[in-house]
Amino acid sequence: MRLSKRSAYVSVMLLAVLLVLSSSLLAAGDPKLVDAVKKSDIKTVRALLHAKVDVNSASADGTTALHWAVDADNLEIAKVLVAAGASAKSRNSYGITPLTIACINAKPEMVELLLKAGADPNTVFSEGEAAIMTAARTGNSEVVKLLLDAGANADAKEPTKGQTAMMWAAIEGHAEVTRVLKSREADVKAKTIGGYDSIMYATREGHTEVVKALLEAGVDVNEKTPEGMTLLNLAIFNAHYDTASLLVNRGADVNLADRAQGPPLANLMKMRRSAGCQTPCPRNPDAPASLELAKLLLDKGASLKASVPAGRGGGGAAFGNGADVIASIGALKAEIAVKADPNASGDFYKYAGLFSQGGGFQGDAGQQQGYGQGRGNYNVSALSAATQAAIAAAVGAKQQDTDLNDDADADAAAAAAAPRGRGAPQGPGMSLFQLALMNADLEMGKLLLAKGANATAPFGKVTALMLAAGPTPTANLTVNGAASNHEAFELVKLIYDHGATDVNAVDDTGATALHAAAKRGSTEIIQFLVDHGAKLDVDTTFGWSPLDTARGYRDFLGVGRRDLARGRMQPEVAAFVEKLMKDRGLPTEHFGPGSK
């Protein structure tokens, strides 16, 4: 939501600069009167006026003694100057009038003096800011009343964005000003050029009292921003839980979803694991906790069947970018070919993975296999005969002890068909409880279970146990920094007790819950799964074991080391897994010493 407070402050900053500049531009008029005003020397001011000094004498930029008196909020001197004939309508070269300055200072007595002296209540600063807008921003409701009583247009708009006084009061959180404007028939539903209105500003800023006043004035509690975000989701997205609670209690639809954030409860759950703040931190210390808001949403009928769209705290693509998948396929097929024929060149790796893209190949190997017209032609004829033979054989390789698919095209197809993200699905989204598992949100998980959530439902082929254990090797996820391993372990035990007991189930890439626990780095979860029958010597479709996942890398024969995409090296966890394997007489390497 592109809302900015910048324009609301331009005039203040500019005014300060211009007044400073004017102090050095006094040559055009008699500087004595201005000097006396700036020093608050009322005696000298009176003497100069008695001596018939021009009370409206201005500096080179048009700034008068009255400007300076108002700026200093010196009501006594301002009265003397006005009584002597000082013009309340004087405007310097920058469009600044004494009334503009008085509204910035938010002093009713000064504003009243100037209005009675003839100041225009609809005066506009050169940037397009009307006096009523300035007063609404600075927040003195008495000043706003004085301007309105004098004929100020309550719905005046500045030209840049089309903002009104009502909007500026909403941005700054001035609820009483909002009520005053509404009582004078100001349009509470007025839109900016971009389509935003006052309640959107107030909701974004978390000004609950302003939101309340606008709702009382008839604004729709379920309206959406130009981007399609509901007010409720806007409040939650900015961690304004007190504002969100008000909206819910005033009738906001707790199941009304928007494209970016989904339904409110899903948005809240993602916010609880947002990177910006671990709870996250509500800006208002008196705001109800996010868990209390979740309870309120559920009590008001939030559906447990809602699905979670991609977004903040919701995960990413399951298999990362295509290059990672292709490289992993190629590396594993290269290793198989080199195992079968030690004369096969490591160059095989450069080409094997490209079969997954349907690429066309030149040379004997390519022509013999009849590879289709793909993204380009790759000449393999320069490779050794052994390597060409290995390439040709790899395409028709049958399932071996690594559980490799029949060919690289099938591997890529499996990757393409898999759920697009543990937490960021492209098809049917994951459930709220599944999101709680993925985010290791123990308290939210318990709350959802108490409300009847299904503890064992899988997300595609990703089991609940995998979601709770951690991200699998190919998932485009890192361990959520806001989620603790302790919470994840408690959730693993919780759903196991609820029936999620298949510790050796595999997802579309051949990964198990043990792979997920290894990537998370939780030795507690690893031990629990092994104690309940999890296999330590199982490889994914791409050739990664739980031990490789904990190490954060894998050595491929004939290719070399590949780091785990979005992974990390965890030597202590790797040593823990390695010991478990050795204690059970299991090989810890894919080739060489310690291999099968």
Corresponding CATH architecture of one domain: Alpha Horseshoe
Biggest β-sheet: strands ordered side by side in the sheet? 1-4
Shape: elongated
Helical run tally: 30
Largest sheet: 2 strands, antiparallel
Q: Per CATH, what is the topology of one domain?
A: Serine Threonine Protein Phosphatase 5, Tetratricopeptide repeat
Q: Helices and strands: which structural class?
A: mainly alpha
Estimated share of beta-strand residues? under 5%
Which stretches of 5+ consecutive residues score pLDDT under 50? Answer: 1-14, 20-28, 276-280, 311-321, 352-380, 395-427
In helices, the fraction of residues equals 40-55%
CA(first)-CA(last) distance: 57 Å
Count of individual beta strands: 6
The residue-averaged pLDDT reads 80
CATH class of one domain: Mainly Alpha
The whole-angstrom Rg is 35 Å
Could you name the CATH homologous superfamily of one domain?
Ankyrin repeat-containing domain
Descriptive report:
The protein has 596 residues and is mainly α. Among the domains are: 6-162, Ankyrin repeat-containing domain (Serine Threonine Protein Phosphatase 5, Tetratricopeptide repeat, Alpha Horseshoe); 322-400, no CATH class; 430-583, Serine Threonine Protein Phosphatase 5, Tetratricopeptide repeat (Alpha Horseshoe). 46% of the residues lie in helices and 3% in strands. The strands form three sheets. It has a two-stranded antiparallel ribbon. A two-stranded parallel ribbon has the order 2-3. The longest helix is centred in the middle third of the chain and has 19 residues, at 322-340. The protein is elongated and about 110 Å long. The two termini are 57 Å apart.
